[in-house]
Write a structure and sequence with these properties.
It catalyses: [protein]-peptidylproline (omega=180) = [protein]-peptidylproline (omega=0). This protein has 27 residues and is mostly helical. The protein is 37% helix and 0% strand. 0% of the residues are buried.
């Protein structure tokens, strides 16, 4: 995934990041 840099993103922040990264799916 795109959180392989540490995966220390809180649920709240994760939703925001997921929204911004929604157009860039982890492939």
């Amino acid at each position: 995934g795109w959180l392989s840099n540490g995966d220390k993103v809180p649920p709240a922040e994760f939703e925001k990041l997921a929204a911004e990264y929604s157009e860039c799916p982890s492939g």
